[in-house]
Amino acid sequence: MIESSTLTLTLTYVGTLGVAAVIFLGQIVAFTAMLALAGVVGVLVHAARLITRRRTGS
Length: 58
Hints:
By secondary structure, the chain is an all-alpha fold. Helices cover 84% and strands 0% of the residues.
């Protein structure tokens, strides 16, 4: 049978790694969302500039 101190150390270690993995995945999701948002905003700004540009030479 496993000693309680070894079990506690193992569960603490696995728990810490689990929390770190969740935080890491959250950061990846947040970074991806920020890149996607920046791309969408860039496309919308470009489209708005094309729509509202002034005609010259008329």
